[in-house]
Automatic annotation (TrEMBL):
It comes from Halanaerobium salsuginis. Its EC number is 5.6.2.4. GO terms for molecular function: 3'-5' DNA helicase activity; ATP binding; ATP hydrolysis activity; DNA binding. The lineage of its organism: Bacteria, Bacillati, Bacillota, Clostridia, Halanaerobiales. It catalyses: Couples ATP hydrolysis with the unwinding of duplex DNA by translocating in the 3'-5' direction; ATP + H2O = ADP + phosphate + H(+). GO terms for cellular component: cytosol. This is DNA 3'-5' helicase. The keyword Hydrolase applies.
């Protein structure tokens, strides 16, 4: 008979069989960390542990889905409903929803994304009479986010940051703290969370209610975390709170792949694990199952240029595989055409499918040329994590109506509807309406009933506001009371507020936008079909949580995937192209500046780790290309660029170098050295 763990090598088995106490599995990319964690979960269940007693944290929802599917395949589908497997955000949301009233929120509470949070901050800056040039809302949001991730309260903001020699004066941070405090008040008032709250509030909940903490500690007897190198302080804290007192905590990771330092992740957490848990068993996996020797050796040599590394077990494989194909191009256009030709070549002559291929870039901006060229070469492609379906303007607009439907306190949604729908009443008057409501202890919608009470609103403007109140707000209030399926509700709302005539007609391309709205409504119908008993509220929450997935996402289709190196974390593809490997792009200009200014001596090391992540996604063939000039931002200006320093850190004997140029007078490209690839 075949045993479950026969699918693992001895080291992996050792990890999957160590069920008690703290365990750290630390090993390079492709060594089977995620696989080991998956099998360990199955093993726990086979040993009689209830799925509900295992908490498993993955970095993305996609990774959670994949892992869940694999575990079900190993031990049966019936365990699925009971599993606690997901991202930090989704797990915390589940805990918070079970305890809403304890954290000053109520049913209907929704999550604000970055755009929402920045809009709130803009409003606060306006209300405080501050200048956006001095207090950039996006920057303030970053400061607040970072503070929340580090569990720093408004009162400590100035102390913690201004003194730490960070940019900005003490006065600046005092004001930022004032905005932070007001921001928290607005969120509570609007019955909403932001993403960082999900973790922060869960910790606060546990810290103020020991009994509750104990309940969850007993529930989650076994804790497992994938990609542990990228946990931030608040996530680290949460895990250590929950793990006590048994400390059955199993974490896997690779310090060489820590790439979210810019978002508060701290590779110190994985490096300190043995210090935090002196009883920890440390297991190093020794074999790479993913990549060819050329890819392993080259990426190892690259990462050895970092100083902040933990030593890994060395490994090699017998077959070197194809060399790494390095290409220099005259321009981004030439580079894009080169990539397209290589892709078609692989598909036509080497039996690869389009879906075997991924193109990775530092940020989406660099893949524009390629996105234009791919259709010309008849290459189907999917942009992963670009402007998502749910970020489309008409969808975002329509979602505001639904948000107000499920959460009557969502004043941000209300204000947005006002801005979308009511013409001729600007920001100043809107803020006057707000002020009037506040001073007279009224709801803002009460003021909409008789708007002329506000100074500056004459009869014409008042008529517009009253019409808005009747058609939109009253409709939403009526619908809220009605018992009907969520799809019918959304559809009726769409029709009764006359969204097509009043909103879509005002935008460009209304017909196309209507198509997207229909897709969106269809998605709601599907959700209703597959999740009976759940409502619009669950739908909206879920959509926010799974922002790293997309309606257009489908693994079934045979498409080349384009994504950022960050988004590729944990994934693998037979063929990988890394494009735009240039100084100031990859490593990113910001990291060079941070390092030069002495703000972060490890900024370029993080870029190198990201490059390492990108390279190690490849199983068989890796292409890396760079161009001599590139447009770097929206100013449209070309800038001369040098090849990335990372390229000179790769072993020359494992590279196959080509130069590609545009053919004079022709449309094609020419390989200076005609490479016989693979
Ligand atoms: P990363 O650091 O990139 O997340 P990882 O260490 O999590 O990588 P996995 O994704 O778990 O690595 O494994 C890499 C590949 O190797 C997967 O396709 C996996 O199925 C395969 N693999 C790992 N271990 C074994 C094994 N013992 N036998 C066969 N295949 C394996
Ligand atoms: Mg992994």
């Amino acid at each position: 008979m075949k045993y479950l763990l026969d699918d693992l090598n001895p080291k992996q088995q050792e990890a999957a069989q160590t069920l008690k106490g703290p365990v750290l599995v630390i090993a390079g990319a492709g060594s089977g960390k995620t696989r080991t964690l998956t099998y360990r979960t199955a093993n726990l269940i086979q040993q009689g542990v209830k799925p509900a007693n295992i908490l498993t944290v993955t970095f993305t929802n996609r990774a959670a889905d994949d892992m869940q599917a694999k575990i079900a395949q190993l031990v049966g589908n019936e365990i699925l409903a009971e599993m606690n497997l997901g991202t930090f955000h989704s797990i915390c949301l589940k805990i918070l929803r079970e305890n809403l009233t304890k954290i000053n929120r109520m049913e209907g509470c929704l999550i604000y994304d970055t755009t929402d949070s920045v809009a709130i901050i803009e409003d606060i800056i306006f209300e405080f009479g501050l200048e956006e040039t001095e207090y950039d809302p996006a920057l303030i949001f970053n400061i607040i986010s970072k503070a929340k991730m580090e569990l720093v309260k408004p009162t400590n903001l100035t102390k913690n940051y201004a003194k730490a020699g960070k940019q900005g004066s003490e006065h600046f941070y005092q004001t930022a703290a004032r905005i932070y405090r007001e921001y928290e008040r607005v969120l509570a008032n609007n019955n909403s969370f932001d993403f960082n709250d999900l973790i922060k509030k869960t910790i606060e909940l546990f810290e103020t209610d020991q009994q509750l903490l104990q309940k969850y500690q007993q529930k989650f007897c076994y804790i497992q975390v994938d990609e542990y190198q990228d946990v931030n302080h608040s996530q680290y804290k949460l895990i250590s709170l929950l793990a006590k007192p048994q400390n059955n905590i199993f974490v896997v990771g690779d310090d060489w792949q820590g790439i979210y330092g810019f978002r508060g992740a701290d590779i110190g957490n994985i490096l300190e694990f043995e210090h935090d848990y002196p009883a920890a068993r440390v297991i190093k996996l020794e074999r790479n199952y993913r990549s060819s020797n050329n890819i392993i050796e080259s990426s190892n040599q690259l990462i050895n240029n970092n100083t902040q590394n933990k030593v890994k077990a060395a490994w090699t494989r017998a077959d070197d595989g194809a060399p790494i194909f390095l290409a220099r191009a005259d321009s981004p256009l030439v580079e894009a055409k080169y990539v397209c030709k290589r892709i078609n070549h692989l598909v036509d002559f080497y039996n690869y499918k389009f879906s075997d291929i991924a193109v990775l870039c530092r940020s989406h901006f660099q893949s524009m040329q390629l996105q234009n060229q791919l259709p010309k070469f008849r290459i189907p492609h999917q942009l992963v994590g670009g402007v998502s379906f749910f970020d489309r303007q008409e969808i975002r607009y329509f979602v505001n109506y639904l948000k107000l439907l499920v959460n009557p306190n969502d004043k941000l949604a209300l204000k947005r509807l006002f801005r979308i729908e009511v013409h001729g009443v600007g920001e100043i008057l809107l803020s006057e309406i707000n002020k009037y409501a506040r001073e007279n202890k009224m709801e803002i919608t009460d003021v909409f009933e008789s708007p002329t009470v506000v100074k500056g609103i004459g009869n014409n403007k008042a008529a517009n506001i009253i019409e808005f109140q009747r058609r939109v707000i009253d409709t939403i209030y009526d619908l809220r009371e009605q018992k009907m399926g969520m799809y019918q509700k959304a559809l009726q709302l769409y029709e009764e507020v006359a969204f097509a005539d009043n909103v879509l007609a005002e935008l460009d391309n209304p017909a196309e936008r209507e198509k997207y709205i229909n897709m969106f409504l269809e998605d709601i119908a599907n959700f209703q079909r597959y999740h009976p008993g759940r409502g619009l509220y669950d739908y909206l929450l879920l959509n926010k949580l799974i922002a790293d997935k997309d309606l257009a996402d489908s693994d079934q289709e045979d498409q080349v995937k384009i994504m950022t190196a960050h988004a590729a974390k944990g994934l693998e593809f037979p063929v990988v192209f890394i494009i735009a490997a240039e100084e100031e792009v990859f490593p990113h200009l910001k990291s060079l500046e941070e390092e030069a200014a002495g703000r972060n001596p490890y900024a370029v090391e993080e870029e190198r780790r990201l490059f390492y992540v990108a390279m190690t996604r490849a199983e068989k063939i890796l292409f890396i290309s760079f161009a001599h000039r590139r447009v770097q931002n929206n100013d449209g200006q070309y800038k001369q660029l040098l090849p990335s320093r990372f390229l000179s850190e790769l072993p020359a004997e494992r590279l196959d170098f080509t130069s590609v140029e545009s053919k004079k007078g022709g449309s094609g490209i020419q390989l200076r050295k005609n490479v016989q690839i693979i």
